Amino acid sequence: MTAAEFPRIKKITTYLTEGKGIGGDYHNVEKGHWLVDNYIANPMSKFPEYKASRTSWGINVLGSFCVEIESTDGSKGFATGFGGPIACWLVHNHFERFIIGEDPRNYNLIWDKLFRASMFYGRKGITLAVISVVDLAIWDLLGKIRNEPVYKMIGGATRDRIDFYCTGCNPKAAKEMGFWGGKVALPYGPDDGFPGLRKNVEFLRNHRKAVGPDFPLMVDCYMSLNVSYVIDLVKATQDLNINWWEETLHPDDFDGYALLKRAFPTMKFTTGEHEYSKYGFRKLIEGRNVDILQPDVMWVGGMTELLKIAAQAAAYDIPVVPHASGSYSYHFVASQSNTPFQEYLANSPDSSSVLPVFGSLFTDETVPTKGFLNISQLDKPGFGLTVNPKVKLIDARYILSPSPERPLKIESVDGNEA
Q1: Residue 263 C-alpha from the chain's centroid
Q2: Is 104 left (phi over 0), alpha (psi -120 to 50) or beta?
Q3: Mind listing the pLDDT tens digit for each residue in 113-124?
Q4: DSSP labels for 69-133?
Q5: Which residues are part of the catalytic machinery?
Q6: What is the mean pLDDT of residues 279-301?
């Protein structure tokens, strides 16, 4: 196949998913799931009415969406993420013009156009999440055209297997399932005062007792603390051998992370789940105040941007351990040398079993077994994910441009028909 013959992108379709627990919105789960209905410290838990459930303040309000990109040879790339109808609207009303007709190998060019065209309203958040899913669909398409797994197109295998730690509400179950470590969400924040601090210490002490002295235990603080509270908490738990403290501060509090590192130079602090693009990570990396970076490939800008962030981090010998994202992260981790392991975000309601990260969206999603997966399990074209024909995908065009129930009437300024 010559360069002139290489397939070009001819069509892009977006879908919404019907039902709970399907697709790339981690928090779109059934009531009672540990991810949403446990006490978890978060930026909104300072308000009493929003403490009990993260769905009460709308963490799941956007929902999942999917992107399918078809090339002129009939190949199709597919990816999922979060953003719901808003994401679909952005794809078709703004981004599509930069995608149709392009050579999918020009992923850097496409990414740059999407980012620059949306810079005046984007740069972070939902805009980057949408760009991420488009980018992942392009990589999946490219793998389908070339009949190669994504990890082989971005560097090839750097190891034979990927080892996992598990994030959930039951680190003892994580240990029993074969994961090398377990991460729990902190229940209380600064607005719960010293009683909450004592409850946090007791909570972590109980988990340490349950898993024993040597099993790595990590704590996710979900952007909910401040510097003085973290200092008090770390001091109060120094005998518990916490492996790392994650997302302790507001994502933009770069100076705060510097203060924490100065206070505890031998303690590991991690962040990056809610940071976006290489520009956002530049400060984190150059400051050298965090020990592990945790970008989410479905939010940060997709595979194209994650590879650039990994290169930035490698220059400073800072490990990159992606947040969740299932197979999209696995291909990245397999191909890079500064990615020592991967997170498995427990998708079962009580986090005591291993289920597909994207629910029933795919028929063949790879998941870790006994805490690891072999790289050879990723040896399928693209990201190796087959859409489940039993899952109902709703073409977003029917949501974005519904047909009127009756002909529209044009009225003049006096209220009469024109």
Answers
A1: 30
A2: alpha
A3: 999 999 999 999
A4: EEETTS-EEEEEEE-HHHHHHHIIIIIGGGTTT--TT-HHHHHHHHHHHTTTT-SSHHHHHHHHH
A5: 323
A6: 98
Helix axes 302-314, 277-287, angle to 10 degrees: 20
Give the pLDDT confidence score for residue 398 in this predicted structure.
Answer: 83
Domain 3-148+388-400 carries which CATH code?
3.30.390.10
Where are the chain's structural domains? 3-148+388-400, 152-378
Q: What is the b/e burial string over 364-393, where b = at least 16 CB atoms within 10 angstroms of the residue's CB? A: ebbbbeebbbebebbebbbbbbebbeebeb
Q: For all residues of the chain together, what is the average pLDDT?
A: 96
Token pair in block for residue 159: 């190891």
* Second CATH level (architecture) for the domain 152-378: Alpha-Beta Barrel (3.20)
Query: Which tokens sit at 100?
Result: 């149709």
- Does residue 112 have a pLDDT over 70? yes
Asked if the domains 3-148+388-400 and 152-378 are classified in one and the same CATH topology, the answer is no
Give me the sign of the Cα torsion angle 400, 405, 406, 410. Answer: negative
Look-up: residue for tokens 């940071």? 275
